[in-house]
Design goal:
6 strands; Arc Repressor Mutant, subunit A; 3 domains; two-stranded antiparallel ribbon; globular; Ferritin; 48% helix; Rossmann fold
Length: 435
């Protein structure tokens, strides 16, 4: 138990501390190691009682490790809780249980903690999806948005089916008759309307080789277009690039994998799965992934510090929208109703990431004004003096900003920085946006 751990063993333990359960393929992708190397690490840690393994080789921290951490006794690595061998802060193996979210009428927010079964589901789904990516020949950046789009569609269909059942019951006792085919009836319930060819079940049964000269990829693309047509709030949000799957078998396999998300799963769990995949894709893209995804631990710290109970929130570098989701979760944990107390506004320079953000908000039952814009040069929200909170993790040390374009902008009341660095511009944007 007291034997020294290698650097890679420590990295794997820290990764498992963050994710509760993880398969060898996902761990290898995140750590930048071969799968065979991760399997050897797994076997060594398991032999020392530091981890356990489940179905398919998924890895979890051993409960004894987390118990020791909670009691403040020596951890299995021989380190003091919260410190590494150099005496520096390290990520704890567990965190204190957080209060569960409080539901409110018409929407929901995911609670801060996941149970083991849901964590395993997330890890297994990611393992399967990542394995298919490796076989498809697609880069992670090409694969991420189509996968997240299908997770979104699976979520939308579950909510649609529940709403349709409610409308059928209401129609049976109403003089107006049934409204099961009226998009407005679903929108009134905060639910996305799906016509028959836009439903996940329809695509799941669609022939792998296509039909009537329409391929499976084309059918999925058309389903996404139909959803945007019937639900204007999603216009321009959903991916329509499924023709990138040159092998229809790979797309069919992905549809089958995501269909294993149980329809009985609570709505909050779908949001968690979406967040899990966002984080996993960000890790797989390395430094570039950090441009659209901020680790949840950092986001949670920021929201706990500023306590955004109500009002207008601006994130001028919103990425995939994690700041907004966590702010709403904070309100929910404190017995509030985010949908009625928070208004969220964001800017993001990349078109694809803007769409990810809007999809992320929809997955969590939220709406917001998210604009594609370069925050130095554009102010689509008229931000000066308008917001109660500014919550952001902007890109640091950006250079070559065209100062001539912004020197007279009222959002920069302290003038242009002397150095070719945008950090002070971000500070001024934060300052000038507050009411």
């Amino acid at each position: 138990m007291g034997s020294t751990l290698t650097k890679n063993e420590e990295r794997l333990l820290e990764l498992l501390a963050e994710h509760d359960s993880l398969g060898p393929v996902a761990a290898a992708s995140t750590l930048g190691l071969d799968k065979e190397k991760v399997v050897k690490l797994k076997d060594g840690l398991k032999a020392r009682g530091l981890i356990t393994t489940g179905k398919g080789g998924s890895m979890q921290l051993h409960r004894a490790a987390t118990s020791a951490q909670k009691k403040g006794t020596e951890t299995p690595t021989g380190l003091e809780p919260g410190a590494n061998k150099n005496g520096k802060d390290a990520k704890p193996l567990t965190s204190k249980p957080q209060p569960q979210a409080t539901a409110w009428s018409g929407t929901w927010i995911a609670p801060p903690e996941r149970d083991a079964a849901k964590s395993k589901l997330e890890a297994d789904l990611w393992d399967a999806a990542d394995q298919m990516r490796a076989n498809s020949g697609l880069k992670s950046s090409e694969y991420s948005t189509p996968v997240l789009g299908l997770i979104f569609l699976r979520f939308a269909e579950v909510r649609y089916a529940n709403a349709r059942e409610e409308l059928e019951k209401e129609g049976a006792s109403s003089r107006r008759g049934s409204r099961v085919d009226e998009p407005a009836a679903y929108h009134a319930k905060g639910v996305i309307y799906l016509e028959c060819t836009a439903r996940y079940g329809y695509l799941l049964e669609y022939p792998e080789g296509g039909k009537n000269k329409v391929s499976l990829a084309q059918a999925v693309n058309e389903a996404m277009r139909a959803i945007e047509r019937d639900n204007p709030q999603l216009s321009g949000v959903l991916p329509k690039t499924y023709e990138r799957f040159s092998d229809p078998a790979a797309l069919k396999s992905l549809l089958k994998t995501i269909s294993t998300i149980p329809a009985s799963l609570e709505f909050d769990a779908f949001g968690r799965i979406y967040e899990y995949f966002l984080a996993a894709f960000a890790r797989s893209e390395g430094q570039k992934g950090g441009e659209f995804f901020t680790p949840p631990s950092i986001v949670r710290l920021l929201t706990e510090v500023i306590e955004p109970f109500h009002g207008r929130i601006l994130d001028p570098a919103c990425g995939s929208g994690g700041m907004f989701v966590q702010s709403a979760r904070f309100v929910s944990e404190h017995q509030g109703a985010p949908g009625s107390t928070l208004s969220v506004f964001g800017m993001e320079k990349e078109e694809a990431t803007t769409a990810l953000c809007r999809m992320n908000l929809a997955m969590h039952g939220l709406e917001g004004e998210i604009k594609q814009a370069i925050s130095y040069y554009e102010d689509p929200h008229g931000a000066t003096g308008r917001f109660d909170f500014v919550l952001a993790n902007p890109p640091f040390n950006v250079n070559r900003v065209d100062k001539e374009r912004i020197k007279d902008d009222p959002r920069f009341p302290f003038g242009m920085p002397r150095t070719d660095n945008a950090n002070y511009l971000w500070i001024q944007i934060f300052y000038s946006s507050l009411s």
